[in-house]
Structures
1.
Amino acid sequence: MGRVTLLNGRRFKMVSSTASEVDPDAPTEFEYWEKDGVVWGAYTGDTVTVGRFVGTRRDDRVTITYVHALVAGGVATGRSDSRVEREPDGRLRLVEEFRFAGDDTPHVSVCTEVA
């Protein structure tokens, strides 16, 4: 997958997370941008009022640092490593392993590309 702008302009929605129950009617949605191996974007929905992230992609691995405001109040920050996979229909899926800052509990979420 190299330096191709694989994620640029793509949107994803969260379908599962070990950190919280995902609202299927209003899941967190992410928009990715990418140039020269750098990725950045924004997300909102479900438990998140507004979120931002920045990081890098190398081949099928995405590493980001994120910060978001919570609907319940407060802010969450952390770091994640995602694996880019392809769904049988050609859409992308991100399988993300993440930890919140100050918490050593590992979490996993799955996001699928919005068609």
Note: The two ends are 20 Å apart (CA to CA).
2.
Amino acid sequence: VKTVQATLSATSARQIAPDFTLKDGSGKTVRLSDYRGTVVLLDFWATKCGGCVEEIPMFIQVVDAYRAKGLRAIGVSED
């Protein structure tokens, strides 16, 4: 089992991520700003990136484990 530890900055030192708008797989518009105030796991990946493809199952596990606690995820394919 792999574990990851991240150091968080104090709330007062954090910056708001720049907004972006994309279409999801069904054509629905998704805006990062729609998630403001929510913890979002943002993943940029590509099918030609072997490491990206390898990490997708772990990404899904994290999202499934923390969805009930409010975690939301946005995966952006660069393909």
Note: The two ends are 30 Å apart (CA to CA).
